[in-house]
Amino acid sequence: MTELSNSYLEEAIEDSRPYASQGKVNMNLPDYGEANKDYLGVSIITTDGSCYSAGDHDQYIPMQSTSKVISLMLALQDFGKDRVFQTVGMEPMGDFFNSISQLESYDTSKPFNPMINAGAIATASLIKGQSVENRFDRYMHFLKKITSNDHLEMSGEMYEAEKANGSRNRSLAYFMHSTGTLVTDVEEALDLYYRMNAVMMCCHDFARVGLFLAKGGLDPDTEESLIPAHHLRTVKAIMMTSGMYNSSGHYAVEAGFPCKSGVSGSIIGTVPGRMGIGVVGPAIDEKGNSTAGGALIKKLSRDLKLNMFGIENTERTKDHAF
Amino acid sequence: MTELSNSYLEEAIEDSRPYASQGKVNMNLPDYGEANKDYLGVSIITTDGSCYSAGDHDQYIPMQSTSKVISLMLALQDFGKDRVFQTVGMEPMGDFFNSISQLESYDTSKPFNPMINAGAIATASLIKGQSVENRFDRYMHFLKKITSNDHLEMSGEMYEAEKANGSRNRSLAYFMHSTGTLVTDVEEALDLYYRMNAVMMCCHDFARVGLFLAKGGLDPDTEESLIPAHHLRTVKAIMMTSGMYNSSGHYAVEAGFPCKSGVSGSIIGTVPGRMGIGVVGPAIDEKGNSTAGGALIKKLSRDLKLNMFGIENTERTKDHAF
Amino acid sequence: MTELSNSYLEEAIEDSRPYASQGKVNMNLPDYGEANKDYLGVSIITTDGSCYSAGDHDQYIPMQSTSKVISLMLALQDFGKDRVFQTVGMEPMGDFFNSISQLESYDTSKPFNPMINAGAIATASLIKGQSVENRFDRYMHFLKKITSNDHLEMSGEMYEAEKANGSRNRSLAYFMHSTGTLVTDVEEALDLYYRMNAVMMCCHDFARVGLFLAKGGLDPDTEESLIPAHHLRTVKAIMMTSGMYNSSGHYAVEAGFPCKSGVSGSIIGTVPGRMGIGVVGPAIDEKGNSTAGGALIKKLSRDLKLNMFGIENTERTKDHAF
Amino acid sequence: MTELSNSYLEEAIEDSRPYASQGKVNMNLPDYGEANKDYLGVSIITTDGSCYSAGDHDQYIPMQSTSKVISLMLALQDFGKDRVFQTVGMEPMGDFFNSISQLESYDTSKPFNPMINAGAIATASLIKGQSVENRFDRYMHFLKKITSNDHLEMSGEMYEAEKANGSRNRSLAYFMHSTGTLVTDVEEALDLYYRMNAVMMCCHDFARVGLFLAKGGLDPDTEESLIPAHHLRTVKAIMMTSGMYNSSGHYAVEAGFPCKSGVSGSIIGTVPGRMGIGVVGPAIDEKGNSTAGGALIKKLSRDLKLNMFGIENTERTKDHAF
């Protein structure tokens, strides 16, 4: 088993960076030109607190869909599992992340899960608060706490860009409103969703979110429990089956630990009990996942034996067998 | 953490048995009358060789869809990962297990994954052999080896019943033949598929399959490797995302370890590095999963801390952190 | 063949009125209570100018989807056939009138035809004008001319109700905007669409629209051509294949002449070269068609030999054979 | 209005023949090589008995889907409208002719209409008879009678080719068997369907079928009624909405009279009270319709004023107005 170190990560970055050329940068995002295409960065923080980084790890990008992980945690905290999953399902779907057909299909109009756009809009609409501002404040407060980073903020430019290209999400939201899945004001639900997506983070912040999941909900500073561990099990399970758009099955096989990606090229990875991983690589494939970032995630899994379905990962537990 | 014992399992069975009344026995199977509806049995074999059983654990039922796990292992062994996944996908789908619509959708006619009927028929068609008999012999030889049970055999009656009710599967197979996904003789592919489904097993046999996966492919008698561990990681990942029909997401959340069910009421469970689980409970829900068996699987996960996304499951590894 | 007369129509109304009890009044429309459920009225105007009416023929109801006929005529007039059918298809669909799945299917995001909501919103967006007001004025001007009724106007109450229940249409419109089918301002396109639907008409007005189509586009007052006859052939053909929601095939068989219905219970019928028919019957079936009105349309077809596929309808042309 | 004559038809053929280059010959049919690609022939028989032909009108090709018109007439004759439309719908669908998705959709597994493959297989299964041979004999007897051609016969070679490429139809048939739509033996239903499709006809025969429909069911020799006129109205209406695969809407607009095409390049056209049209042109477009034949049908409609939605077609009836 390869030992984790900064120099190992540098090598891994150089191995994976060439995959960026197979992807395209999401041109709906401002300042996201071809210039940024080859960016690739990674941070890993282990449960014992060690931190490793390499490549363009200090590059800030918008959370985009990685925000779905945060809003699901908050909604579970605010309403509990039963209520959340009355509004949104927990089943993976073999379909595009912004599919509207599935909302119309069969006897249900419930979005399949909280990791697809429709499901995330519905989930975000559950977060408690008197106003969009208030609800977004709560989101930011929670995010700053679990990343231990008080400086996080939304990019106004990204927010505006998101809003300007929002027709598909609007369509999803109004559809859910017409079926009664979304009961709050549609424009407010979308506004909150756009804000969440526009928060800027770097690898270290993404890794901190992964670490929070890996440690079962402990405050990174105080080690006290911020959110019940069973809610985080739920989040991790849904990331595993549905976190990587319609390549989720592929990543379950090839990475083997829970991940969530965003079309900005961000990836949050979490290996329960071991580490959180944050990746930034703006060039994405046609499914929406970072090409170089995905290659890196899979390489880390192989080299560091992170695959949860692997026996190597568990042989060390032999003496714990009962 | 509850300690695993026969008496614990007896209690768990009695707790879970009442859920049988919420299900229905699959009437397409002979001798599967209401009389059997309340049957519920379980066997667990840990990686150190200890075996625990309770309830109707010696009741034999046909494998049905649990055979998909075996045929995927054999196909991977025969052809390797690349070739197998040229024929069948590895993505979960939020749809019924015998869906034909998905075969027609978008730009692909490849079945979503090897755990749905279409995918399993395509996977089985890959197994090497000169004839149906020969290919089925290879299947049985492999199955007997990994279960360490030479007495396993196919039920002629179940095979005939399967064949007589086979219109939907025939439809799937001919569709795949028309698109070039299934290139072998259709009736032979179906015949092999029906035979596999009709093999009779009891809880101990199902648990043995789970154990084989949990131990990464070691011969239960000789401890030598029968199949590369990475193939078994693939199988377990696909069971996690797609093994429980369109409740797979629910089981990823509520059980948190790889499972595969069959409409006979069988369930194979596997906890990597820890144990194999076999469950028999003929009353199934509308998705195709054993109602009492599913309740039991979820109870075992909670009581024995089997959820792979859980932190309790991994705290014991703290001293292994790097 | 039954002779057309007011007394015949009175009988036909009484025969058909009981079917109202099989339908439901659309409760999204104000003042559309159970009180109105049994209303049934009809007007027929023949190409020689004779006019017959019976029942509640002076009851005013909103046009709803019957406006789709008007906006298609205007769009064809403004842009010609080629341009209109670059934006919207001309194929019938066996699906619900507000289906969004079809927009996502296969390689096209073009709405199937101008008689479904998505297609009508796209068609309306083509109508020329500097502003919503200006475009709606042109619509009203055209409508008043072909109905020879200067008193037609929009109901503000119906417009507001339409707007308040507009989530599904908004979803359709934003979806089309996201795919580039709808290139104008979405809210303006919807606003125009809602206004058109909220224009109040009675049987005589609906019959006048049918007559305009039946006479190939002649001004009812001056007999001069207002719109090329070939555009009206297009409109009538599309009404035949797609005018009665997903009962269009049923009405092609059972009525056999072009019709268009609205969820207010309105029906426009047109028998080329013979007559225009206007029907009002607020109780609608689950497909969106007036139950009593539909029964009446089918009775008229049988009694008056209006089925264009019928030989009786054409025997009179024997001496014209070549 | 152009006068109908052999020389006019020769001109029309030469105008339309170049469109053959835009199509492809169906290579699943034997002897259907590129050599035949430019074939184009037409026959027209008017209700007064005059017959006109031009081009390759004596070229024999298999009926393919034009047989659907015959089997629908026979099924209506054998069982009546109610019974037939319990098994198959009468709604057009905006989907591919061999779509299986629609069978799975919504709450019905009834094929949309008798003009698509699934619907035609179900319809054919209704035709009375003790055996496939007996039922096919009845089909041939009826076909010979309405075409007044005792020499019609099935091509064994075409039948074998159809059978060898039958996986998609098999898939459709077994699907319908699994849902209870098809209650007879599946292989027998398919066998009958393949035989019907393999009957060889030339333009004159196809035109005779169109004439039979145009005259409302009269025996071409004796002028006595062979089948009630109302059944033929039903057939013609369904041809109008669904006869040209998923270009049916296009042909309703551009031709404006009932047509049915087959992938062999055959087209049956019928103008009620006026004429039957038979076209042969083997090069088909991606929807399944003859490219040159379709161009010819549309040219005939324009030149001879055959569009039933046209006012020119009906102005002659002004003196019959009531």
TrEMBL record, chains A, B, C, D:
InterPro entries associated with the record: Beta-lactam/transpept-like (IPR012338), Glutaminase (IPR015868)
Pfam families assigned: Glutaminase
State if Cell cycle is listed as a keyword: no
The broad enzyme category this protein falls into is hydrolase
Q: Which UniProt keywords apply?
A: Acetylation, Hydrolase
Q: Which reaction does it catalyse?
A: L-glutamine + H2O = L-glutamate + NH4(+)
Is Secreted there in the keyword field?
no
Single annotated GO MF: glutaminase activity
Locate the residues binding substrate: S65, N117, E162, N169, Y193, Y245, V263
Q: Which PANTHER family match?
A: GLUTAMINASE
Q: Which family does it belong to?
A: Belongs to the glutaminase family.
Per its UniProt record, what HAMAP family does this chain match? Glutaminase
How does the annotation summarize its subunit structure?
Homotetramer.
* NCBIfam families reported for this sequence: Gln_ase
What is the designated name of this protein?
Glutaminase
